[in-house]
């Protein structure tokens, strides 16, 4: 099979197209013929080695965290899927590699593709959908009437999270550039802030939850818009001790992560705010819930561009410009 591999950790550069053997199936695995995948900021960070401490991939490895495709084979213990099923998924860490024609994936990470989406549309959903679900439903437990601030409303996570927060009954604020204000409003945002000309810290107050995806300065400013008892969830760091414990990291790494997040945790505690770092995980059951919302018309995908498979490197470069609205998708096969 053809796949794009990372030969060494580096900041920029094209991925190498290679011929690799078809993946071997474990008993609980399904083999998926990938028809579409998508690029994420996580792909850039993994390629650059930013997560080497917690995701020590050994080059050469295949990149990619989203997929939509058709089941080609099933392992001996697989019960939920059959050959020919159309599925979508975010493979679990240490088994990623969706910039390829095929992947072996544990059936627990997989769900049936939303029936009303194309393969390209479905491939845009798993990573950002699971991130938003785990932040707003699982960790944040957002309830009707609460106020939620979602940063970067025109990005991949933002476009999904706005719609999910509105479905949960929240009043939603977001930041975006002036050209994307109407997009954010069309997704359900009640308050849209032009981050180039306005300061969200001066506009927002008394919020129940902030979903932070930006830099440390924005993270610190976000504390100021939350009310006592509110929650700050960051998907861009810094990792906290709870995350280190969840991963089962060694004592040294636990200490490193504790020190990295010490400043924001102390400030949050002083303000009566809960801080948590979220590194989303693969979860087929949650993707099933998300598929139902999509089929009901509650959430729609936002796809900026679709690149052909041979232009996978260009798709990642385009994402890194920061100009994409929603997701950047790669069509792998018909």
UniProtKB/TrEMBL annotation:
SUPFAM superfamilies recorded: GroES-like, NAD(P)-binding Rossmann-fold domains
Annotated Enoyl reductase (ER) domain residues: 13-330
InterPro entries according to UniProt: ADH-like_N, ER, GroES-like_sf, NAD(P)-bd_dom_sf, YIM1/Zinc_Alcohol_DH_Fams
Cross-referenced Pfam families: ADH_N, ADH_zinc_N_2
UniProt xrefs under Gene3D superfamilies: Medium-chain alcohol dehydrogenases, catalytic domain, NAD(P)-binding Rossmann-like Domain
PANTHER family with a match to the protein in the record: ALCOHOL DEHYDROGENASE RELATED (PTHR11695), RETICULON-4-INTERACTING PROTEIN 1, MITOCHONDRIAL (PTHR11695:SF294)
Protein name in the entry: NADP-dependent oxidoreductase
């Amino acid at each position: 099979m053809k796949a794009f591999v990372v030969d060494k950790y580096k900041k920029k550069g094209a991925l190498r197209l290679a011929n690799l053997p078809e993946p071997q199936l474990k008993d609980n695995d399904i083999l998926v013929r990938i028809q579409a995948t998508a690029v994420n900021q996580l792909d850039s960070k993994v390629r650059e080695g930013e997560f080497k401490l917690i995701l020590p991939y050994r080059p050469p490895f295949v990149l990619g965290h989203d997929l939509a495709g058709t089941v080609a084979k099933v392992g001996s213990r697989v019960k939920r899927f059959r050959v020919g099923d159309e599925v979508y998924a975010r493979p679990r860490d240490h088994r990623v590699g969706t910039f390829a024609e095929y992947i072996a994936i544990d059936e627990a990470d997989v769900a049936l593709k939303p029936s009303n989406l194309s393969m390209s549309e479905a491939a845009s959903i798993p990573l950002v959908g699971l991130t938003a679900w785990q932040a707003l439903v699982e960790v944040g437990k957002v309830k009707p009437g609460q106020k939620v601030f979602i940063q970067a409303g025109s990005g991949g996570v933002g476009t999904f999270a706005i719609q999910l927060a509105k479905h949960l009954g929240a009043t939603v604020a977001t930041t975006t550039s002036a050209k994307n204000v109407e997009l954010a409003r069309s997704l359900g945002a009640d308050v849209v802030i032009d981050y180039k000309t306005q300061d969200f810290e001066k506009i927002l107050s008394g919020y129940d939850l902030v979903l932070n995806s930006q830099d440390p300065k924005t993270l610190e400013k976000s504390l100021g818009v939350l009310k006592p008892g509110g929650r700050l969830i960051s998907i861009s760091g810094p990792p906290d001790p709870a995350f280190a414990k969840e991963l089962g990291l060694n004592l040294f790494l636990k200490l490193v992560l504790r020190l990295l997040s010490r400043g924001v945790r102390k400030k949050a505690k002083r303000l009566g705010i809960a801080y948590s770092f979220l590194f989303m995980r693969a979860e087929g059951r949650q993707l099933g819930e998300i598929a139902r919302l999509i089929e009901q018309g509650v959430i729609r995908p936002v796809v900026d561009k679709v690149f052909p498979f041979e232009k996978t490197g260009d798709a990642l470069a385009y994402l890194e410009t920061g100009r994409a609205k929603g997701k950047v998708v790669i069509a792998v096969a018909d």
